[in-house]
Design brief:
525 residues, alpha/beta, TIM Barrel, 4 domains, eight-stranded parallel beta barrel, three-stranded antiparallel β-sheet, 17 helices
């Protein structure tokens, strides 16, 4: 079977995501994790464009990756200059890597309207840029930017751009759906045409997700000769993102039987997905295929009963193959069987016929009637089991808290929280300001506890939701607060309910912190 190579461009294309800004340390951390995972190529950035990317490549000169090839990215030479005099191409050489990637124009529209040069001049700079890099001993991947749009607009010219790169000595031409608008059957037809061309035995694919088809378009190219897929972890990228390498790798290895990464490494897929989202400071999507928290989550009683009997009834793969877990969502739709199964999943031994099970089932129904919702707050449900089954050991005791919101004459709004708590026999009394009352309370809690539990510095809140449960009661209505927290390996959601939004928030905050500490305790046992 053909070897399929994965080319990760999270550090370059992924960094163009709205809301992502990688530091040098961030890029190095992600590259090292992807190297450990077994990614074939890691595009480190554009050394010519900024000092940050140059620093990344300087680091890997001194401390090379063990498995992956680090690759710099650039463009064809400026039309007014010779390739040998182009600063962009020279910067790629200074990166001192085995491989380099450059992109050029395949769409005559871009040549005329963006570059504003003749079609022949564009072919010349493609050929000369690749040839210059090859003469300097580099292996070249040529990204044919806007290839599919170019092909549909002017097939003959788009094919000429590929030939120019290959005649210059390119190792591989990569067909790019840069605007992300090409449909799957169009991709298939065009790729088959490329396969029949002389001189192109192998090629790569680089898809954007503007039509929601980046993963499908990448995979559909495989059967017609594609041997190199470019994409990003979690599908990060400009606009709607790039092909998501998490499902790409899982599908290639589990469903298409390609040996993509080393044996045993596929079980790290979920952890890699979380790691990159954490470094990127992005909320990890619950519905992320294969790696999301909801990817193997079941709520309906009929579904849960069937999965307990045979997981294939409602799961397309076994979760552990990609390092994920099955979740049974506890809600008022579920019966005692679901409760027992969920408890077992969380390593609690609970007999369906026991008084404990009956009591717990009644308590959950009562709490959900009050406004609690455990299907989306499994961390709070875990803590509920701990407390009700007498296995919970408190990490701290609250003595009291106070929250003050003050608006001053200069219109500056100040939020301050004071909290008093006890850990074992030691009393902690701290105060902290915040952007709002909940943030101030969160800061005060952390400030008081971080001395005793330093691992709390690893976690942070990534989402905060407030839901009014009875709008007719106006400002006196009961509210439900959901807080999502995240650390380097996981994310979790907790819930609090009260007529007082500060108290509801405090309940969710405490559960969030206790869950983190409980998780760390079990990890260290």
């Amino acid at each position: 079977m053909r070897k399929i190579e994965i080319y990760d461009t999270t550090l370059r294309d992924g960094s163009q995501t709205q809301g992502i800004s990688y530091s040098v340390r961030d890029k190095i951390s992600i590259a090292k994790r992807l190297d450990k995972f077994g990614m074939h190529y890691i595009e480190g950035g554009w050394p010519y464009s900024n000092p940050k990317d140059r620093e990344v490549f300087d680091y890997f000169k001194k401390s090379p990756l063990k498995k992956s090839k680090i690759v710099p990215f650039g463009s064809t030479c400026h039309p007014s200059k010779k390739a040998s005099q182009d600063k962009n191409l020279i910067s790629l050489l200074k990166a001192d890597t085995e491989y380099v990637t450059i992109f050029g124009k395949s769409w005559d529209l871009h040549v005329k309207d963006a570059l504003r040069i003749s079609l022949d001049d564009n072919l010349r700079i493609i050929h000369d840029s690749v040839k210059f890099l090859r003469k300097k001993g580099r292996k070249v991947f040529y990204d044919a930017e806007h290839f599919f749009d170019g092909y549909k607009h002017n097939r003959n010219y788009a094919l000429k751009t590929l030939k120019a790169a290959l005649e210059g000595g390119s190792e591989l031409v990569v067909l790019c759906d840069t605007n992300g608008g090409t449909l799957s059957w169009e991709i298939k037809t065009i790729v088959r045409d490329i396969k029949e061309m002389r001189g192109i035995s192998e090629f790569g694919i680089h898809c954007h997700n503007d039509s929601g088809l980046a993963v499908a378009n990448s995979l559909i190219s495989i059967e017609d000769g594609c041997s190199h897929i470019q994409g990003t972890v979690n599908g990060y990228g400009e606009r709607c993102g790039n092909a998501d390498l998490i499902p790409v790798i899982a599908i290639l290895q589990l469903k298409m039987n390609y040996n993509i990464i080393p044996s045993g490494k596929l079980a790290e897929l979920t952890e890699v997905s979380y790691f990159v989202s954490e470094i990127s400071n992005m909320v990890h999507r619950n519905n992320q295929p294969f790696a999301g928290k909801s990817a193997f989550a079941h709520k309906g009683g009929i579904h849960i009963d069937a999965v307990i009997k045979n997981s294939a009834c409602y799961e397309h793969i076994l979760p552990h193959l990609v390092g994920n877990k099955r979740h049974f969502l506890v809600s008022d739709l579920a019966g005692k069987s679901t409760l027992v199964s969920k408890a077992k999943d969380l390593e609690f031994d609970l007999d369906k016929k026991s008084s404990q099970a009956k009591k717990l089932h009644g308590l959950i129904q009562k709490l959900e009637k009050q406004g609690y919702q455990f299907e989306s707050a499994e961390a709070s449900f875990r803590l509920l089991l701990e407390r009700e089954l007498k296995e919970h050991r408190k990490f701290f005791d609250l003595m009291g808290y106070r929250v003050i919101v003050e608006k001053r004459e200069d219109n500056k709004l100040i939020s301050e929280a004071t909290i008093k708590l006890r850990v074992d026999k030691k009393l902690y009394h701290t105060a902290s300001e915040g952007d709002g009352p909940v943030n101030a309370l969160d800061n005060a809690l952390r400030k008081a506890l971080s001395e005793v539990y330093p691992s709390l510095r690893e976690m942070h809140l990534v989402d905060f939701k407030v839901r009014v449960l009875d709008a007719k009661s106006g400002t006196a209505a009961q509210v439900r607060v959901l807080i999502q927290s995240q650390d380097k390996t996981d994310n979790w959601t907790t819930v609090g309910v009260s007529e007082n939004i500060i108290e509801a928030s405090y309940k969710a905050l405490v559960d969030s912190i206790e869950y983190k500490l409980l998780k760390d305790r079990k990890k260290n046992v």
